[in-house]
Amino acid sequence: QVQLVESGGGLVQPGGSLRLSCAASGFTFSSYWMNWVRQAPGKGLEWVSTISNGGGSTSYADSVKGRFTISRDTAKNTLYLQMNSLKPEDTAVYYCWYHGGPWGQGTQVNVSS
Length: 113
Prior knowledge:
four-stranded antiparallel β-sheet; 49% strand
């Protein structure tokens, strides 16, 4: 069945870095544009970033532009999010997702001193 499994979250100090991964299975990963979406405590879902199926096109929310980098490895069926210069307001559960796909369990990112 279709699965998206996020990993790589954790506790990091402001200014630190994390790399999130999303292992995809059960569908043709290379055919889909992929997204990272996050949900902060007590708030709704917020779109973070999108990458085209071939990886040649990316886009970012203004709140993360210049700090986060989305990428994908089609050979490994894996989506990544490199997060640098993290801020407390980046604290959230991060999900990978594609249009029409399921939601995974997410990975928790906590940015705190």
